[in-house]
Write a structure and sequence with these properties.
The complex is a heterodimer.
Chain A lengths: L3 E4 L2 E5 L4 E7 L7 E6 L6 E6 L5 E4 L2 E6 L4 E6 L8 E5 L17 E6 L1
Chain B lengths: L3 E4 L2 E4 L5 E7 L5 E7 L5 E9 L2 E4 L6 E3 L9 E3 L8 E8 L8 E2 L3 E5 L1
Parallel strand pairs in B: 2-11
Antiparallel strand pairs in B: 1-3, 3-8, 4-5, 4-9, 5-6, 7-8, 9-10, 9-11
The chains are: A mainly beta, B mainly beta.
Chain lengths: 114, 113
């Protein structure tokens, strides 16, 4: 069973602060590292993703940092806002493959305090 | 606009009853998935399919059944054999050959009454 370990389970950050969520994986064949954002009562939506040929990708206030040797990648939310309060999931997998049992992390519930 | 439509949004099931959740997509994606999410929990894979008339069990398939008669449709039946069906059910899809992440539907909340 491929393991995906996400931490922390929950996180409270003051408005304007930096939120950091981590994801560790075991399978070195993974080549696509996405983060999903889910609001209550809604389906998850792809937020940002990175490929292993770069160590960092930034989209607005959201940044992915990738550490291939440590088999970890993290999501950084700069200037965190109350609207960022949601549950975040990582789901490392293969970009070129047939449908397979992609494993999601257990999720991180992020709360941004005004 | 392309996307995934799940219906109904809310569903109530009596004990011993089978219910079917609908999932339709117009994204021309060949792979489709069903996940179950319990309160405060992650996503657990029920069934998935990458071509019409073919599907595979996920990690928690017991008490569920699916069909894939058309590429755009992947309905999930929650049978009376599923002992604890109350949960949030999510359908997702992606193109098999280029997996740039899933597109999810908005979910169906099933409650046993």
């Amino acid at each position: 069973q491929q393991q995906v370990k996400q931490s922390p389970q929950s996180l409270i950050v003051q408005k304007g602060g930096i939120s950091i969520i981590n994801c560790a994986y075991e399978n070195t064949a993974f080549d696509y590292f996405p983060w999903y954002q889910q609001f209550p009562g809604k389906g998850p939506a792809l937020l940002i993703a990175i490929r292993p040929d770069v160590s960092e990708k930034k989209e607005g206030r959201f940044t992915i940092s990738f550490n291939k040797s440590a088999k970890q990648f993290s999501l950084h939310i700069m200037d965190s806002q109350p609207g960022d309060s949601a549950t975040y999931f990582c789901a490392p997998n293969w970009s070129h493959s047939s449908a397979s049992k992609i494993i999601f992390g257990s999720g991180t519930r992020l709360s941004i305090r005004p | 606009d392309g996307g995934i439509t799940q219906s109904p949004k809310y569903l109530f099931r009596k004990e011993g009853q089978n219910v079917t959740l609908s999932c339709e997509q117009n994204l021309n994606h060949d792979a489709m998935y069903w996940y179950r999410q319990d309160p405060g929990q992650g996503l657990r894979l029920i069934y998935y399919s990458q071509i019409v008339n073919d599907f595979q069990k996920g990690d928690i398939a017991e008490g569920y059944s699916v069909s894939r008669e058309k590429e755009e449709s992947f309905p999930l039946t929650v049978t009376s054999a599923q002992k604890n069906p109350t949960a949030f059910y999510l359908c997702a899809s992606n193109p098999v050959q280029l997996n740039y992440g899933y597109t999810f539907g908005s979910g169906t909340r099933l409650t046993v009454v």
